[in-house]
Amino acid sequence: MDGTAQSRCGWCGTEPIYVDYHDHEWGVPERDGRALWEKLILDGFQAGLSWITILKKRDSFRQAFDGFHPEVIAHWGEDDIARLLANPGIVRHRGKIAGTIGSAQAYLRIEQREGFAHFLWAFQGGTVQQNRWQSLSQVPGQTPVSQAMSKALKAEGFAFCGPTIVYAFMQACGMVNDHLVSCPCHDKVAALA
Questions:
Q1: 152: helix, strand or coil
Q2: CATH number, domain at 148?
Q3: Residue 53 CA: distances (Å) to CA of 6, 21, 60, 94, 173
Q4: Would 22 be classed as within a structural domain?
Q5: Which of 57, 70, 148, 190 would bridge with 107, disulfide CB 3.0–4.6 Å?
Q6: For residues 54 and 78, what is the distance between their CA atoms, to the nearest angstrom?
Q7: Domain tally for the chain?
Q8: Could you list the mean pLDDT of each consecutive 10-residue stretch along the chain, which spans 193 residues?
Q9: DSSP three-state, residue 99
Q10: For position 193, what pLDDT does the model report?
């Protein structure tokens, strides 16, 4: 789904890792529950930081968090938190690390009850919202759907999942197609929906 520098969404700039993320991942509909959980957790770690910071550390996060397997992380405790706080390859924030453990436990409850992917996609009626934004200034920071999803996630025990973080997550995992209409990825992502 390669965009061109002239027409690709302006938020990704020109740094190769960011361009690759924009062109091949961002907005592609994700329906695997574990992959959705990983994206949500990484978006939570991004709170207060830029996404490129997380993107550059993503491989280190995956290694430190045992491949983002919630069934493993759900059983972690203080020793694991201390180990992660000493890891310079990730964002070292006690609240976010502890929140990930609690979110892993919540994920397992939801997965057993109805499936995590189903739980999340139900907020969109199971379909991708196809937006047709002309400029970045039109793209919202949050929506009523992201507010409802945020509230439901918090009620289940998730942390660092406010409505703005959740909307960024929805964009990243393709629940909404927020590529600008001038971006070559807009129509390619729309076709995947």
A1: helix
A2: 1.10.340.30
A3: 24, 13, 12, 18, 18
A4: yes
A5: 70
A6: 23
A7: 1
A8: 68 94 97 98 95 96 98 98 98 98 98 98 97 96 98 98 98 98 96 90
A9: helix
A10: 84
Residue 191 contacts by C-beta under 8 Å, 6 or more apart in sequence? none
pLDDT of residue 41: 98
- What integer pLDDT is reported at residue 82 of this predicted model? 98
Provide the domain limits for residue 72: 10-192
Whole-structure pTM value: 0.94
Instruction: Say if 125 falls within a structural domain.
Output: yes
Distances (CA, A) of 124 to 78, 143, 144, 148, 174: 37, 12, 11, 11, 11
Q: CB-based contacts of 96: which residues, under 8 Å, 6+ apart?
A: 44, 45, 47, 159, 160
Residues 6+ away with beta carbon under 8 Å from 55: 17, 18, 21
Q: What is the DSSP letter of 48?
A: T
Terminal Cα-to-Cα distance of the chain (whole angstroms): 14
Q: How many residues does the chain have?
A: 193
> Is 3 part of any domain?
no
